[in-house]
Amino acid sequence: MSAANGSAYSWPARDAKAEDVLRWALGEFRDKIAITTSFQATGMVILDMAACLTGGNVKVFSLDTGRLHNETYELIEQVRRRYGIQVELLHPDGGELSRMTSLYGPNLFYDDISRRRLCCEIRKVRPLNRKLATLDAWIVGLRRSQGAARGDVETVTLDHDHGGIVKVSPLAHWTEDEVWDYIKRNDVPTHKLYDMGYPSIGCAPCTRPTKPGESPRAGRWWWESDADKECGIHISPDGGVRSSFDVLLEEVLPATPRAR
Ligand code: SF4
Prior knowledge:
The protein has helices at 18-29, 41-54, 70-83, 94-104, 113-132, 176-186, 244-252, and strands at residues 33-36, 60-63, 87-90, 137-139, 156-159, 165-168, 233-235, 241-243. With 260 residues, the chain is an alpha/beta fold. The strands form two sheets. A six-stranded mixed sheet has the order 3-2-1-4-6-5. Bound molecules: iron/sulfur cluster.
């Protein structure tokens, strides 16, 4: 059965119970499905549910960018001990990382938006794409109440950005309060940085605590103003226009085709 043909599956209803969605997905795709998480609150709820359903025999992977908070590694150790889950840590390609940091320095993300995007591409996007190319389905912690950009998150959908594999969001219809209620009721371990004012936790150099009244997004890449969000353009000697990001990426991947 091809994952690219979503109609071949009998999908759960849009607002089906999260446990039922997980049970269906893990049974349908077996060793070709994995949970991905950065160990934030929604991810921990999904891990807890999956561990209850499988006894810990579930595939879980996470992107180890090499720049994570130490508290994230501590939580990974807790997950391993409590649930018996072997978390697969995906690392950037060593050659790509070495070339990027040699050319632009270890803290290139502070220079400009193009270099920040390049860092995310090498440390996150490309390792994720390599992993997803081996799967028929993946499970994520997206929720509709996480903001307008996620307002139309489907519980199950085809992921056309990743070869048409199936993307499962068991908590799509959950609110923030429901997430934390579940965590309290089930004594689920959580990231220590929540108690230090971080509403959203990513790489250490690129996240900070927020002040009361600030949006959660204010803690991510805080040095970038909204006006900076667009990637710059690059004019080549023949007058061609390309994004600065594309130029940087080609410099880091001189012998590698752009297609991922
Ligand atoms: Fe690099 Fe920051 Fe992106 Fe992490 S969040 S990959 S350190 S730019």
